[in-house]
Amino acid sequence: KKLPKCAIGYAGSVTGGARGTMYTVTSSDDNPSRPQRGTFRYGAQLANGRNGGVWITFARSMTIVLRDMVWIRSSTTVDGRGVNVVFTNKCFVLGGVSNVILHNFEISRVPQTDTIHIFGSSRGVWVDHITSSDAKLGLVSVVQGSTDVTISNCYLSNKNFNMLLGASDADLQDRNMRVTIFRNWFRDSMQRMPHCRLGYCHVVNNLYTNWGYYAIGGRANAQILSESNAFI
After folding, report:
1. Is residue 115 within 8 Å of 92, Cβ to Cβ?
2. Residue 185 domain flag
3. How is the chain split among helix, strand and coil, in percent rounded to 5?
4. DSSP 3-state assignment of 213?
5. Domain that holds residue 20
6. Which of 73, 123, 192, 197 is catalytic?
7. What is the CA radius of gyration of the chain?
């Protein structure tokens, strides 16, 4: 549980489920209506305000075909270190939560939405060492008043949209949004790497290869600090 010491940027103070229950995923099955012990969905429901959260690890490498979106609760760590874990088909949703770490797994091939959707004034979210690709609406989104988010060390590749920070010019609560985008590889995407509205985005030390319309974009009085990025 020393992982939070490596957190950087605006999510640098997160601890995830470090004070909570340890839970190990042993099964790749997914039953949204009746989650079974040993599955990822069962573990994702364990975090609550009384137990200090949950730290989820995986017993072995596995591919989990999600049958419905997974709601990630506050004070959760999803830790895929040491194995190869792939989620497909549905997205992770973080709505109105805080203190979350998503680390070292893949979430790809999501045909209807984005892959990681952070909304509803969520705060304190660290997305690190994630591989994400092939989703209809983009990959990571931070919208609707969410702030203090870091997205770091990720491989992000999508045919069209990649990363959206602020979904609408009318969402004035996004004026308070602060997001760090650090040391990611944005590859083979047309646009939004990221696209920032209203808030403040620090985009630093990222690699961009084979982009289309544009790489980094902003509107609606967004503030973007772009430094030490490589465009190849």
Report:
1. yes
2. no
3. 5, 45, 45
4. coil
5. 14-173
6. 192
7. 16
